[in-house]
User: What shape does this take?
Amino acid sequence: MSTRFDAIIIGTGQAGPPLAGRLTAAGMSVAIIERKLIGGTCVNTGCTPTKTLVASAYAAHLARRAADYGVTLGDPVGVDMKAVKARKDAVSGNARRGLENWLKGMERCTVYEDHATFISPHEVRVGDETLVSDRIFINVGGRANVPDMPGVNQVKHLTNTTILDLDILPRHLVVIGGSYVGLEFAQMYRRFGSEVTVVEMSERLVHREDEDVSDAIRDILENEGIAIRCKAECISFAPRGEDIAVGVDCLEGEPEIIGSHVLLAVGRHPNTDDLGLEAAGVATDKRGYITVDDQLRTNVPGIWALGDCNGRGAFTHTSYNDFEIVAANLLDNDPRKVSDRIVAYALYIDPPLGRVGMTEADARKSGRRVLVGERPMTRVSRAVEKGETQGFMKALVDADSKEILGASILGTGGDEAIHCILDVMYAKAPYTTIQRAVHIHPTVSELIPTILGELKPLA
Ligand SMILES: Cc1cc2nc3c(=O)[nH]c(=O)nc-3n(C[C@H](O)[C@H](O)[C@H](O)COP(=O)(O)OP(=O)(O)OC[C@H]3O[C@@H](n4cnc5c(N)ncnc54)[C@H](O)[C@@H]3O)c2cc1C
Assistant: This one.
């Protein structure tokens, strides 16, 4: 049986559903196909559940620090992991059901719940059915990498997906990977009460960030009792009774860590290997990401790729922006493009890191004359008043053009405050615009004009 649609969308990540909304509102018939959970990674196994758990971990942390604020609580503070999981499931489940109801009630939209594969450039097989369209949008996202490390298949290991099923407290969680996903889980489990070790292959945590950012994050985590093992070049696994022995060939410290649970947090892989892309002639790069142009068109006319699977972004907001770009070009005669996007993201440890634009290394490489303004959070009144003074803020500007090149705010409210820099970057306004803005006291943002008034050459 074959059914024709005006558009087919494969995957219900952060781009597919809003695109279905725009296309159907424009009068098109749309098939949207999901093989697992509607809402994809962010809603079910990514942003929403993790940030919900981060909030529970923050509550536990603050409760332990209650006496610092003159508040008396029972000692020790208890964490009920079943209740923590139930809260996470409720928040994530509500988000999924909301989206599912919206899609299933959408006029002119048909939801298929099965695996989709291309059988030609215009045909997609779903179960026994063949769907046909001249416009196909791929939004298949990615999944956790299971690295080919010695012994990995001989031990029980967790990924960012399976760890979400835990409703018990691991005695000792060993996190492989000291980047975004790994560090968020590391801190939250430490705050829930686990012993936690982070094992990272590089010289430092979040090694794409500036060294001062990496060092400050390491301090924050170590202060909470998380063990950090960097330069772990030969990681291996072996069962050890009920436990798992993790071999870490580090230059310093014990060569082996015995953990009760291992979380693999070593990157993601695009879901493009079982999509039949070869039948459609859609090109990928050597890591499996679908190659796209600045308007997210693949090499095959009538096929677009949006979200993590195109390798041009790895976040909910970049996937959603992909939807905006495609919709603007197709429906609004507005030539939006990916290259207009400014890099921006947050790392949700506590305090969070908000980031935009260039790092110091990028700025140096650009060959510009770079100025930097910095301030520790100990000199931000809002942070002092909240009793959360870890971290610092830093902004980089071009000495000649006065444009803001990038910024890092590692500190309480850093994920929000960074937006006042981001918006000025989008406005292509000089940094002096922020410097003259009168910000509200007491906020973290009010110190951004101050650091921009104290710029000095980047060493
Ligand atoms: C632990 C974790 C935390 C994260 N936290 C954040 C955060 O705080 N902020 C942020 O911006 N980003 C975060 N991310 C990243 C974010 O989740 C993704 O960038 C975002 O979900 C965008 O994904 P997407 O739209 O490309 O597709 P996805 O959300 O991955 O969805 C793709 C969908 O396609 C389906 N699919 C795949 N293949 C097929 C097929 N052949 N047939 C039918 N369906 C198919 C999949 O089942 C899936 O539902 C996090 C990710 C992880 C793993």
Summary: The pocket of flavin-adenine dinucleotide is lined by residues 10-15, 33-37, 40-42, 46-47, 50-51, 115-116, 139-142, 160, 181, 271, 275, 307-309, 314-317, 319, 348 (CB under 6 Å). Residues 28 and 446 are 47 Å apart (CA to CA). The longest helix spans residues 81-104.
